[in-house]
Design goal:
Number of helices: 10
Number of strands: 14
Oligomer: single chain
Bound molecules: glutamic acid
Distance between the termini: 81 Å
Strand content: 15-25%
Strand order of the largest sheet: 1-11-10-12-9-13
Helix content: 25-40%
Amino acid sequence: MRARRVAVLILAASALLAGGCGDRPATPRPGGGGDYTEPPLPANAVVAQPKSAPAPEAEPQCGNPTASLRPAGGDRGPNVDAVRARGRLLVGLDPGSNLFSFRDPISGTLAGFDVDIATEIARDLFGDPRRIEYRILGSADRERALQDRTVDVVVKTMTITCDRRRQVDFSTAYLMSHQRVLAVKGSGITGMADLAGKRVCAVGGTTSLDRIRHIQPAASIMTVPTWADCLVVLQQRQVDAVSTDDALLAGLAAQDPYAEVVGADLSDEPYGVGVPKGNDDMVRFVNATLQRLRTDGTWDRLYQHWLAPALGPAAGPPEPTYRD
Ligand code: GLU
């Protein structure tokens, strides 16, 4: 009985295969015009209808969100001691941000500006920059990972905002970027104003997504898990543009000679190292490392190496501001 059922299945399968061997013209897939077929979307891509959002500036105010704690006294403390006792710093980041945290094509190891910032924190903690365990996080996972203590720090192009400061703490700012637009050269798109009625890609859980919704509510938005996915859907012409920080867009443009960053700066995006709320000793410790990088030439060297070729020269690292 079982053998007969299997034989019938094999017959049916070979009939299907024979049918696919050029006997009949392939039926065009619905939605795919002519002989073309639609490329698949990245996993977990979601297309949202146009909708507006409140101004990100209308978020709860906290004075200057980048004001952090002074480095002094951060070398010891319960959280810093616990990390030293563990012997490894747990760092949250993502491997899909070219220039910041991405897989080196030759070695396969994580590399980039954010990876090097994390490495310098480990150097100061342990005297050994390799004592790091990475935890791969999407943009939308950053606050939760800190709240759950899955990571000791997040170093992932994370903008310091008042809204986030209610959930997590931040170091001083270690890089200033600005939201802009990435489009295909010759597309006629010159900035956010041209995106009414167009499709724009962004990653969920980001300041970039909130700002597109606020500035250009007439755009339809595709959200994907990583910024690298946004480059893929732009290349597949499933969106017309991508919008996020210029530093991240420069990393995408560096991978595609047909893409260009256009339009005015739409925001200030000061990047900080995320730290679990209440871990003041760790905030001070990280701020001591960042202050060393600003003054001993390391910051300039890292900027020069990773970002200057794509972003142009920098005036220097952002000046730290403190609230204590
Ligand atoms: N700076 C933006 C943010 O923190 C986007 C960066 C990212 O998604 O990694 O939301």
